[in-house]
Each structure stands twice: as C-alpha cells, then as structure tokens.
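Example record

The entry below shows one chain as it appears in the dataset: sequence first, then structure tokens.
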Amino acid sequence: MLHVTPSTGRSVPLAAAQVAPLTPAAYLRLRRAAAGLSVSDAARRIAPNNQADAARLIRQLETDGTAARYVETIHGLRDAYPLDVDVYLQLRDAPADARPRICVGCGCSHWDPCGLPDDAGSCAWTNETTCTGCSGEAFPITVYQ
C-alpha cells in the first residue's frame, strides 16, 4: 500500500473525509472516463463480438441504484480499463461511513492513485474530494511504502 502526502509537510487525513461516498455506478463511470473511453470503446474491449450486449451491461452498471451481482463482472470491466475491484466491492457492500475516499474527478483512491502527467509519481489529496491530478495544483509529493 502506498502512503502519499504532499511534500509540503502537512498531513492529509485519508480516512476522515466528511463527504458523501460515491456510488458503485459513479465509480465505474469515473474510472471509464478517466481512461478516456466511451461506453462503446469499453464494450469493444470487453466483448468485440458482442458489443451491443456489453454496452447495455456497462450502461446498466453505471446507472445509480444498480450494482454488479458477481465479482467476475467487475473483473471483466477491469480488463477494459483500470479500476480497483476491492474499492468497487467496498462501495457496493460496506456501510457508507466505511467506504473508501475517492476522487470525484477521476475515481482514484488511496489504494489506486492515478499517475500525474509529468510522471512525478502518484497523486495526493488536495482537499476532501479531489486529487492533485484533477485539481491542477502542482506541488511535489513524497511516496512512502
């Protein structure tokens, strides 16, 4: 597990976010969009010979109020674009106060931080809901393992 903090020396609380957690559907939408894929693009990657059914499944899973019944379904989506299956399952199964903190811009989390465009390393939290990759704030970060 990576522990990421801004190199400014101030500590960023990772578990004390006081914002409403994302839904499993919103998480999938964010991760697909962060990968730069449309529903059609993702469907093509999942089922090249049955894109229409794959696109319907993606749209259904990205509709709030629905969630994948089987973990294998999420593994299939992970083959199309980066997402953390454990984060998805926490969003689906854990009580709201035990869900992971997720960036509302790209869907990254403490367990699957996004890479910054300048390859400076992983992202960090700039506020309760946004990572450095999405906020546009540029400051060096330090990564601890």
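Notes for this example: The longest strand covers residues 3-6. The chain has two domains: 1-21+102-145, 23-99.
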